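Re: the request from the purification team.
They wanted to know what the chain is likely to look like in 3D before they choose a buffer screen. I agreed to run a prediction and write the result into the notebook, where they can find it.
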Amino acid sequence: MQTIVYLSGGLLLAVLVHAGYDLIAAWLGHRIARRAAGEAPT
């Protein structure tokens, strides 16, 4: 993230990248938890 801030000259791009990462991590975590519980993936 520091590199993104340095190269872009501001925080906005780093915040957006971090939010995207968090959304993907939450989605994958949810899928893994559902599979561990024995539910069918959607």
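For the purification team: The CA atoms of residues 10 and 18 lie 14 Å apart.
Please add any questions underneath this entry.
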